[in-house]
Recover the amino acids of this structure.
């Protein structure tokens, strides 16, 4: 399936996810991991490991009908803002009012600053920052 077809499924009325304790956590923790559960196109998108998906998702943050879904996917593939997603999981409209309107600018600034160091960690299924020796 083409990247554009996968991105078309990133819609706030269709996004499905859960949050869970980080793997290996043995005690109660406030930290959460966002795990995408559907639709299938979105779960496929999140496993590609192509940096272009980050730019496309950041662009979707400017569309109020798709911004929440883009935020969820970005959190899942970068492990950033996972607590925000967990906090607003049951009320995405409140996310938009509280922090969603600024999400595009916030994520764009982060991506522009970190893009050159981001690499796909296939074992973890997330983008991580490469640490140069």
């Amino acid at each position: 399936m083409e990247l554009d077809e996968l991105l078309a499924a990133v819609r706030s009325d269709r996004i499905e996810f859960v949050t869970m304790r980080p793997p290996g956590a043995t005690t109660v923790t406030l930290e959460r991991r966002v795990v995408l559960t559907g639709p299938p196109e979105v779960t496929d998108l999140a496993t590609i490991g192509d940096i272009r998906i980050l730019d496309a998702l950041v662009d979707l943050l400017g569309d109020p009908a798709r911004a929440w879904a883009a935020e969820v996917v970005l959190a899942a593939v970068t492990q950033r803002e996972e607590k925000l997603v967990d906090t607003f999981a049951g009320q995405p409209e409140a996310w938009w009012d509280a922090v969603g309107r600024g999400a595009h600018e916030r994520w764009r600034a982060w991506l522009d600053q970190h893009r050159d160091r981001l690499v796909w960690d296939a074992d973890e299924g997330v983008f991580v920052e490469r640490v140069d020796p």
